[in-house]
Amino acid sequence: MTVPAVELDGIWKRFPGVIANSGANLTVRPGTVHAVLGENGAGKTTLMNCLAGVYRPDEGAVRLGGQELSFSSPADAIAAGVGMVHQEFRLVPTFTVAENVVLGAAPRIIDQGGIEASVADLAARFGFDADPARPVWQLSMGERQRVEILKALWRDANVLILDEPTAVLTPQEAVELGEVLRRMVAEGRSVIFISHKLDEVVSFCDEATVLRGGATVAASLSVAEVDASELAQLMVGDVAVEPVPVAVAMPGDPALTVDALSVRDARGLLAVDDVSLEVRSGEIVGIAGVAGNGQRALTDAIAGLEPVESGTITVMQHDVTSAPPQRRFRAGLAYVPEDRLGVGLAPKLPVTENAMMRAYRKLRRGPMLAWDDADQLTDQIIREFEVKIGSKDAPLASLSGGNLQRLLLGRELTGEPDILVASQPTRGLDVAGVRAIQRLIVQQRDNGTGVLMVSEDLDELLALADRILVMVEGRIVGEFDPRVATRADIGAAMIGGSDRSTRPDTEGVSS
Amino acid sequence: MKRLVLARRETPTRGGQPLAFLVGLVFALVVGAILLWITGDPVLDVYERMWDRSLGSQNTWSDTFNRAVPLALAGLAVSIAATMGLWNIGAEGQIMFGAIAATFVGRLLPDAPGLILIVAMLLAAAFGGALWSFGPAVARSEIGVSEIITTLMLTEVASRLIVYLEQGPWKDPDGFGFPGVTPRPDQAELGTLWERTHIGVLIALAVIIGFAWYLRRSVWGYELRIAGSSEKAAAYAGISVRRKVLGVLLVSGAVAGFAGGIELLTTTTGKLTVQISNGYGFAGIIVAALALMRPSGVAAVALAFGALQVGGQAIQTNPGVSPAVATILQGLVLFGAIGAAVFSTYRLRLVDRQVAES
Fold first, then answer.
1. Where a domain ends, among A187, A218, A236?
2. Is A1 part of any domain?
3. Do A323 and A294 lie in a common domain?
4. B-chain residue closest to A326, CA distance
C-alpha cells in the first residue's frame, strides 16, 4: 500500500460558540482526485483551512507523505506543497496573468518576457488556455480560477485544494476544469475537491469523503462503487428534528404569481431560466436546491433588486415586473434577503434607523422626519418580535445574529404584507433563533400571508412548507408534497436526478 | 517567545477622538520643537509668540476666530460629501469660484444697498461653488468618474481663471497697469462683532449647526446615511444612490463656495485674488478627517487650526521663522492624531508568538 499523500487524523477545531470540526479524518492517495462532501456548515472549508495552514487545528495530526507537519501560516503549507484555491479569489486585478502567477514567488529581478514565457509553458503543460500578458480584470471568473490554479502549480503544489470550484463556472468551464484536474493527477499530484454538488463528484472524482456536523461519516469511498443517492443520504443524514407545529394550510387566492421569469446574472448567464410559480394566501411554498442554483437571483428579482430579462411578476393582481422595490413593498410584498447585513440592514447605523428603513416615507414631516414616531415604531417591533437590544441608538452591528433577523423580519411584517419572500431566513442562527423565526413564519401563514421560502435546509422545508419546489440550474425541476415526499426523492431532484415529482401533474409549475 | 500585536478592542474607547486630537497636538509640538532645534531657532520663543498671537489675549482671538471660519466651512464641505463616502478634495477650487461668483454679482450691482448686496453676493458664492462641483458631481453619479480627481483638477482651472480675470476682463482700471481685479463695492463688507472678529464667525457657526442638525434629523440626511452604507441596502429601501451622489456633491460645493464668499466680503483689500482660498480647501480635508467626518466636530478642530495658522504667521516677522512651521505643525497634528486614534479601537497586547500567527 502506498503512503497517502495527505492524512488528516482526528482534527478538532473550535471557534467561539461553534465547533467546526469534531474529529474529522481524511486520507488522500497520491494521483487521485478526492472529493470532500458535505452540506453547508458541515466543516469542509475549516478542515481544508487546517490543511492549508490558514488555521491551526486544536487537536489532531496533519501528515503529508507520511510525515507529520505543523503549519503556522499558509506560506508554510505552500512550502510543503499544499496549494489552495479559495472560493474568493486572491488576485490583483490590475496585474497580468503572469504577474499574478509569480507574485510572491518571483526571482528578485523580473524579466517580463521570460516570466510570461514560462507561465505560458506551465499553462500549456496542463492544457490551460491562458494568455499570460492579459490583465486579470479582463478575465471571466472561470479564467481567474485558472490563474489561481496556475499560481499553485507555479509553486509546485503537490496537493491542490479547490474549495467549491464549480460555483463560479459555466457548465462548459466545469468540464474543462475536470480535464485539467485529470492531467494533474496523471503527474502523480493529488487534488482535493470540495463540493456539495453530487453530479460533479461522480464525474470528476475517484474517491469521496463525506463530512457531517464537523466529523467524517464516510471515508474514502470509491466513487465508482457508490451511487449518488447513497452519497446524498450520507450528506444529509436522517436526523429527525422536532418540528415546529404546523396546522393544515388553508390556501386562498394567489398572492404572488411569477410567470416565465428569466434573470441574467452579472456574467450574462441565465441565473433564472423560465421559472413560473404561484404562491397563494395562507400557504408556504418552499424552494429547495443546492446553493448557487439561481435561488438568490429569483428572490432578488421578485423583490426588485435584480432586473428581469423576461417574464412577469404579479403581487396581489398588481403587475410589479418593473416596479422599484419600494412600490412592491407597498403592494404587499415583504422581503427578507439572504444577505441580511449588506442588503436588508445597514450595520453601522443605529437600530432605529434600521427599523424605519421601509416605513420612513410615512414618517416625513416636510423635509424632516418625525423621530418620535420612528422611536415608537422601533419600540413596537422590538416588543412584538422580542428583539433584544442594548440601546436604540447603538449601531445595529452590536446585535446578535438572531436578534438581527428578528428585527429584520419584524420590520418587514409590520406592514402586514400579503406575501413574504424569505431567503435563508434561519441560516446561521442558533437553535432557539431558528425555532423563533420558523414560528413567526408559520404564524404569518396562519394569518393568511403567502410565504415563499428559500432554504438549503431540507428538514426545515419538509417541516414548514405546504409545497416544495426544487430548483436546479435556474429552473424549477419538480414539485413535491412534503407530507408524502421523502428526503431521498427531493435529494435526487436537487442533484438533477430523473425522478422529478411526487405529483403526476405539476400544476402551477412549468419547466 | 513573545511579541507585540495590535488587538481590536471589543468596544471602541469612549471619547477616544478628542483625546487622540490632544495627543496629536502634543506630538506635533514635540516633533516641531525638535525640528526648530535642528534649524537652530529659539524653540520657546517661537511657541510663546505663536501662543501670544493666537490665543494669548482677547485682541488676538479675533484673528483666530476669523481664520477658523473658512477652515470650518471647508471642513464642513468635505465632511458632508464624506457622509456618502465621497471625497470632495477640490474645496479649494470651489472657494475660488465662489469668490468669483460673488465678485461677479458685486460688479453687476455696484450701487445696491449693503445688506442686499451682501446677501446676493453670499448666495452667488454658494451657487458658484455648487456650479464648480456640478461637473464632477454629474460625472460621478452618471458614469462613475472618480470625484477625487475631477474636483482636484478643477481647482487648478479656478486659479487660472482668476489670473485671467485679473489681467483681462475684470482688470482694475485704477490699478496703475498692474494686474488685479477691481475691488468689491465698499458697502459690501461684513461688519465686525467685537475687535476685528467679523460677523462671518456667527454665520459660519449657524451654517455648521444648521447642517449638523439637518443631516441628523432630516429625510435627506437619513437617506444619505442609508445610501452611503451600501448601494444594495439603498435600492432595497427605495433610495436612488445616483441622485444622492449628485445632490451631496452639489451641496458640498455650495458650502465651500460660500466660504469663498465670506472671505471676499471680509478681506481688507476687497479684491478677488488667487490667494483668496489660501489653502483653506486643503486644510479643510485635514479638519474634516480630525473631526471624523462629523459636521458637529468641525468647528472645534477648525478653531485649533485657526490658532496654529495665525500663530504661524506671527513668527514670520519675529523671531523670523518660516511660516511653513505652522503648515508642518498642522500635518504633524494629523499624523499624531491618526496614530493615537488607532488605540481607541485597538490595543497593544503581548502574546505568545505561536498564537499570534494562527
1. A236
2. no
3. yes
4. B238
User: Are residue A96 and residue A244 in the same domain, yes or no?
Assistant: no
- Say if the Cβ atoms of A369 and B236 lie within 8 Å: no
Tens-place pLDDT, residues A178-207:
888 999 899 899 999 988 677 778 888 999
Q: Are B273 and B161 in contact (CB under 8 A)?
A: no
Inspect the interface and report whether the beta carbons of A343 and B233 lie closer than 8 Å.
yes
Contacts of residue A353, Cβ cutoff 8 Å, sequence gap at least 6? A346, A374, B222, B225, B226
Q: Is B5 part of a structural domain of the chain?
A: no
**A76-96 per-position pLDDT tens digit:** 888 899 999 987 788 998 899
Q: Which tens digits make up the pLDDT trace of A289-317?
A: 877 788 999 999 999 999 999 999 999 99
Residue corresponding to grid cell 422611536: A375
Interchain contact, B217 vs A358, CB within 8 Å? no
B254 - beta bridge partners? none
Across the interface, do A329 and B238 touch by the CB < 8 Å criterion?
yes
Q: How many domains does chain A have?
A: 3
ipTM: 0.81
Those residues of chain B whose CB sits closer than 8 Å to some CB in chain A are 217-220, 222, 225-226, 229-230, 232-233, 235-238, 354, 357-358
Please check whether residue B90 lies inside any domain of the structure.
Answer: yes
A304 & A429 share domain: yes
Q: Which residue is closest to B234 within chain A, CA to CA?
A: A343
Question: Which residues of A are less than 8 Å from B236 in CB distance?
Answer: 303, 305, 325, 335, 337, 343-344, 357
Among A416, A438, A456, the domain boundary falls at: A416
In terms of domains, do A152 and A271 share one? Answer: no
B319 prior amide bond cis, ω within 30: yes
pLDDT at position B358: 35
The three cell numbers of residue B112 are: 445696491
Does the residue A338 lie in any domain? no
Are A424 and A287 within 8 A, CB to CB?
no
Domain of residue A391, residue span: 346-416
Q: Do A132 and A218 fall into the same domain? A: yes
Q: Which backbone phi and psi does A290 adopt, to 5 degrees?
A: -70, 145
CB atoms inside a 10 Å sphere around CB B291: 24
- Count of the separate structural domains present in chain B: 1
Residue from A441, A440, A478, A481 nearest A462 by CA: A481
Say which of B219, B230, B354 has its CB closest to residue A369.
B219
Query: A72: which chain B residues are within 8 Å (Cβ-Cβ)?
Result: 354, 357-358
Q: Note whether A116 and A54 are same-domain residues.
A: yes
Q: Select the residue of B222, B225, B237 nearest A358 (Cβ to Cβ).
A: B237
Cβ-based contacts of A323 with chain B (< 8 Å): none
Nearest CA distance, B216 vs chain A (angstrom): 9
Task: Confirm whether pTM is higher than 0.80.
Answer: no
Segments in A81-209 forming alpha helices (H): 97-102, 112-125, 141-154, 171-186, 198-204
d(CA A362, CA A228): 53
Distance CA A167, CA A32 (A): 21
Residue B2 within any structural domain of the chain: no
**What is the least distance, in Å, from the CA of B219 to any CA of chain A?**
5
Residues A300, A401 share a domain: no
CA distance A181 to chain B (A): 30
Residue of A nearest to B10 (CA): A398
